[in-house]
Amino acid sequence: MVLLRLFIGWHFLYEGIIKLYNPDWTSFGYLASAQGPFRSFFIWMTGDSIMGMADWGNKIALVFVGLTLLLGIFEKWGAIVAALLLALYYLAHPSFPWVAQVNVEGSYWFVNKNLIELVACLVVYQIPTSHYFGLQRLFHKKETLSHAN
Amino acid sequence: MKFTRRDALKGLGGIPLMGAVWWAGAASSVAKKKERSAILEQLNIQPSLPSAVPGIGGEPIRVGVIGFGIRGEQLCRALGFATEEWKEKMRMAAKEDPKHTALSDFESQDKLNVHLAGICDIFDYRANKALKSFNTPDNKMERFRTHQEMIRSGKVDAVVIATPDHWHAPMAIDALENDIHVYVEKPMTHNVSETYRLRDVAMNSKAVLQVGHQHRQTLSFQTAKDIVHKGTIGHVSLIQTNTNRNDDNGAWMYEIHPDASPQTIDWDMFLGSAPKIPFNKNHFFRWRKWWAYGSGLSGDLLSHDYDRLNCVLNMGIPNSVMTSGGIYTHRDGRNVPDVLQVNMEYPNFSTGSSQPKGKEKGMTFVYSATLGNGFSRPTILMGHDGTLELGNELTIWPDGRSTRYADMIESGKMNPEVPIYQYNPGASTPDGVASATSQYFADKGLMWTYINGARVDSTFLHLREWLSTTRNGGKVSCGVKEGFEEAISSHMAGLSYKLGRRIEWDPEQGKLKPIEGIDFDEALLASL
């Protein structure tokens, strides 16, 4: 479980950092090419006033998830944010057989990598491990000690 | 409270991991950025800024519009006048699709100091349509039955000519001889001899002539000029430019209006210099399909592509042209070809060379067109050091065997499959383009340009430049020199198709090299 949590954190942090250090990065293409039932919502996000916020929101959320899961602190929050992000990614390009697959890699039928990682995040949420490996262990210990006193 | 070594390891174990991932991500991004900026520094390309145009002061310029068809209406919108019908249609379109920004683009367009004073259209419905929307208390507008009447009325300072091709030169010449400013749609002329005549008249007139190649305002083309000038792609030996359309509108099958009849259309006026035939709606609305009134692919669409490149390279009139083609996809009675291949030779032209002096010289410009397939083939300039794809966006790939970039390619800093430069002035602006034909023009950078990320109609900029020049003096981007080069090159292509032989230009005489027994005008406009 610790490994699962670390790997997900690793993945999110790297994605976030790459985007953070690349001033030209934008999710415009991914959103503008969105398919499926929520297409209009994602297209709305590409509006001039929203686009910048959406890009920054995504970068910050990615780094936040990466830090919480890797460091092992507020991991439940991290897992929830990660699941929400993945749900958005999934819904922008859902792997429904009747929806055109644009801007995606691999071949899927309903279940794709985003969905699997999303479920993994739910597992991380359900089975927290930061009290065993992570900063939380130090706080956790402090708490149990103070309770003992 | 006591922490063991195990606690410390397991509690803080994530920190080095985080550091490693952060470092790896940042290092990879920064390294890529550094490599890019090293390449960009070497290329030293300056994206162009819009040129400043002095404002139009004083009394509004009185403009008369000749021809209120598809293009005439577009030109009026660029001047700031849209019909109520169009506004309503665009309102509905925007309601259905919030991305449809035609109406808001129009409304946010800067206002020009223009009084739309006259309309001249030989189809009553169209003239009345213009009057209905534009003849208001703020803008008194009058209908003129003929262009001669409008030009001599003393009520217009300038005319916009958006008629079938065979009327372009006669109207432009008449206006310029009366010192009325002219904005004429492309192609500038319909045959060879009137091209010579219009050049002479324009050079002797006090009035300003602008030919309607609005893409000369497109910023990406001005940037492309800088790219080629700096030798970024080396010696260009081949240019490939194309037309691919596969829809009725793109093949000039325009709608026939139900009100059209000999009573509502001045048919003799329409025919002008064309062979006399009885009233024919098909010819009136779909005139682009016959040599008598239009210019086929060579004058209608090659002229765009030719001028796009002439704007970037300033290569002028080719030494010779060879064309072939036929009517292969729309055998509907038209006599202009719908598949056309044009090869223009420039044996003495060079864009500069990175190789030993004298090794490289000469270029072929290829125009390849079909109205039976819509696959989008880009315009590419093929140089010894790189390839430039030209449109509203620009992309440059280094060539694997480039002399200039040999070191960078060998050291892996450049890869022939990865562009070294991309210019996309509208990157954050989504575009809603209505039809296949509009998309065709938009991809080529013929419809609009981007200024500070905002989409601007290039026709508006082109008209504004013309109007400003009529008031403030200066030079227009597509004057008689550019128009002459465009018209002659297009006519050479058309003539070569018609005659099945090479057509040559004599730069010393400033004329086509004569061919014994051939009258160029007759040959070009012949119906077969």
How would you characterize this protein structure?
Chain B: It comes from Maribacter aquimaris. Chain B: Residues 61-213 form the Gfo/Idh/MocA-like oxidoreductase N-terminal domain. Chain B: This is Gfo/Idh/MocA family oxidoreductase. Chain B: Residues 281-389 form the Gfo/Idh/MocA-like oxidoreductase C-terminal domain. The complex is a heterodimer of chains A (149) and B (528). By secondary structure, chain A is mainly alpha-helical. Chain A is built from seven helices and no strands. Chain A has helices at 2-20, 28-32, 39-45, 48-71, 75-92, 113-126, 135-148. The model of chain A has no long low-confidence stretch (mean pLDDT 86). Chain B has 18 helices and 18 strands. Chain B has helices spanning 5-12, 14-43, 70-78, 84-96, 102-108, 124-134, 147-151, 168-177, 192-204, 219-229, 267-271, 281-285, 296-313, 406-410, 436-443, 458-472, 480-499, 520-525, and strands spanning 61-66, 114-120, 142-143, 158-161, 181-184, 209-211, 236-244, 320-326, 339-346, 363-370, 379-383, 386-390, 394-398, 421-423, 448-451, 454-457, 503-506, 511-512. In chain B, the strands form three sheets. Chain B has a ten-stranded mixed beta sheet with strand order 14-13-12-11-7-10-9-8-17-18. Chain B has a six-stranded parallel beta sheet with strand order 3-2-1-4-5-6, sandwiched between helices. A two-stranded antiparallel ribbon of chain B has the order 15-16. In chain B, helix 9 (192-204) packs antiparallel against helix 17. Chain B is globular. The interface between A and B is medium-sized, with 35 and 27 residues.
